[in-house]
Amino acid sequence: xVVSTQSTWGVSVRSSSFTIMISFGFLLLALSxxxxxxxxxxxxxxxxxxxxxxxxxxxNDGAAVLxxxxxxxxxxxxPTKKKVSNFEVSTDTATYKLSFNINPEKxxxxxxxxxxxxxxxxxxxxxRVCPSGAAGSCPEGMFNFCPYNGSPAAAEDSxxxxxxxxxxxxxxxxxxxNPLGECHGECICMSG
Length: 192
Known about the structure:
With 192 residues, the chain is mainly β. It is 15% helix and 44% strand. A hairpin with a 2-residue loop joins β1 and β2.
């Protein structure tokens, strides 16, 4: 159903429920792209007697590979029409099993298996310190500390958790300093 018709610079513009549906579709698409994470992995791939250097950009939603948002780029450009099946690449967070074509490159099948998150256990006299998650979120049993009167970042940090001496950590927190050093202004999570 047409709601209205306007003319701007000689161009007729129609507002309709169809236009609203299209706008809503773009909004959903934008929101789905925001939640996707992407990892880049470089690997040497052998297909028959040929060896290729490939870069994989692998987008995932935390549970599955988003094939439409992922890609593979390989060099050299010859020979053409090579196929690779069940090629495995691994990152810190997941192991990917990929099937793809080379020259032209196309990801034909992709799956992933998340790796178990390793929890750092600290000995007596040490406190567990981890990166702050998106918007200051911390793992269960930990609290957020932002030195220098800072505020949590919108994106999560990606360094590994570690154990710091509790006494030194307490002194830094009391002074409002980052226990990682003055060059680090980001918020951290500490076990309580």
